[in-house]
TrEMBL record:
GO cellular component, as recorded: cytosol
Source organism superkingdom: Bacteria
GO molecular function: metal ion binding; phosphoglycolate phosphatase activity
GO biological process, one term: DNA repair
Keywords: Hydrolase, Metal-binding
One Pfam family in the UniProt entry: Hydrolase
Species this protein is from: Atopomonas hussainii
CDD domains: HAD_like (cd01427)
Protein name: Putative hydrolase of the HAD superfamily
């Protein structure tokens, strides 16, 4: 995969499912949290999932879906503490380190932009040393809008001064990529296999990263 690196000044990278294996997040929301919810209420795991999954679906694409404070209030559970119980599952994708190191020496601006709540970001940083590779670590909660909304991108440009027309953005979420596309981000890449424990996904209209080392040519 040959990217027009000479035409790019800035690289915007998502975190979960893009740099970090999405297995941690999928396991937490689909298995671990329902199990703890079932324990709290004396439910079966199946009953807990039947109750929680529609609640999750109703919030997807909104900032509340990513807000740990919101779920702690809604479910009356210590969400950060429950995440910490399985934090050993947090891991960097095997192919991401070489890409991050190359970007670090490329002279380009490199920003992490994530919908993750700041508490979730802090937990990930305890396990994986991402901060040294980035000029900024930006949470959508800083702006009050998720990446699915145009207001996020407007706030990002206002805050950082990046030029979308000279930027590359990589994310595993197709709705987020479509939002970036509408805003005018020039180069967009999806992620073929965000979760190492699941198969490749259909990234539809977007070209997808299968191995970050394939992006190094010309960088």
């Amino acid at each position: 995969m040959q990217l027009p690196w000479n035409a790019l000044d800035c690289v915007l990278l998502d975190m979960d499912g893009t740099l970090l294996d999405l297995h941690f997040d999928n396991h937490f929301w689909l298995e671990h949290l329902p199990a703890r919810y079932a324990d709290k209420h004396g439910f079966t795991l199946q009953h807990a999932k039947a109750e929680l999954y529609p609640l999750f679906a109703a919030q997807q694409g909104q900032l509340s879906w990513y807000c740990l404070d919101y779920w702690a209030r809604e479910l009356d559970l210590p969400i950060v503490g429950l995440k910490r119980e399985i934090m050993h599952l947090i891991s960097l994708r095997d192919d991401a380190a070489a890409f991050l190191q190359a970007l670090q020496h490329s002279g380009k601006r490199v920003l992490l932009i994530t919908n993750a709540h700041r508490d979730s970001l802090s937990l990930k940083l305890e396990r994986v040393e991402l901060a040294p590779y980035f000029e900024r670590l930006i949470s959508a909660h800083d702006y009050g809008f998720p990446k699915e909304q145009q207001a996020f991108w407007q706030a990002l440009v206002s805050d950082t001064g990046i030029d979308p027309a000279r930027s590359l953005f990589i994310d595993d979420s197709l709705p987020v990529l479509r939002s970036a596309q509408r805003f005018g981000v020039a180069q967009l890449l999806a992620v073929r296999q965000p979760d190492s424990q699941k198969g490749p996904k259909d990234t539809e209209e977007f070209a997808a990263v299968e191995d970050y080392r394939a992006l190094l040519s010309g960088l």
